[in-house]
C-alpha cells in the first residue's frame, strides 16, 4: 500500500539520522546514558550469572548501530515488523537517557525536554503499530491456529476411515469364521 511506502521511511528517518550522528560522536551521549546504563547493568548483574561490561560508550554505539540498521531496514520495507520492534526496544533507553525532563529546574529547559519525551512516546506508538502491521495478511497466530485445526480435521477423517476399514475387516473375518464353522 502506498501509505506504508511513505510512512515507513518517514518514521525511520529520525532513527537513521540520529544513529549516524551518535556513531560519529558517541561521547556527547555518554553523560546522559550513564544513569540508564548503570541501572540496567546493576539489575542484570543481580539476575545473570555473569557481569555485564560497564563501558557506557560501547552501549551508546551498539544502540546507535541498531537504530541505523533497523531504521534502514524499516525505510526499505525489509523485515518491517522486526525492525520496528528493534527500534521500539532501542527507543526506550534512548528516551530515558536523553530526555530526563524531571531533572531540570529551568522551566524552558524542562518544557523542551518534556516535548522531546512526548515526541519519542509518539514515535514509540507509531513503531508499535508498525510492529503489529500484517499488511492485511493474516497474522502468524491465525495461520498457526488454522493449520492446527486443519491438521486435527485431517486426523479425525483418517481415524474415521481407519475405523470403518477395521469394522469392515472384522465383519469379513466373522463371516469367514461362520462359513468355516458350518
UniProtKB/TrEMBL annotation:
Regions of compositional bias (Basic residues) in chain numbering: 164-182
A GO cellular-component term linked to this record: membrane
Keywords: Membrane, Transmembrane, Transmembrane helix
Top-rank taxon: Bacteria
UniProt membrane topology term: Multi-pass membrane protein
One Pfam entry name: DoxX
Predominant location category: membrane
Region (Disordered): 143-182
Subcellular localization: Membrane
Record-linked InterPro entries: DoxX
Keyword field contains Magnesium: no
Protein's name in the database: DoxX protein
Protein's organism: Geodermatophilus pulveris
High-level lineage: Bacteria, Bacillati, Actinomycetota, Actinomycetes, Geodermatophilales
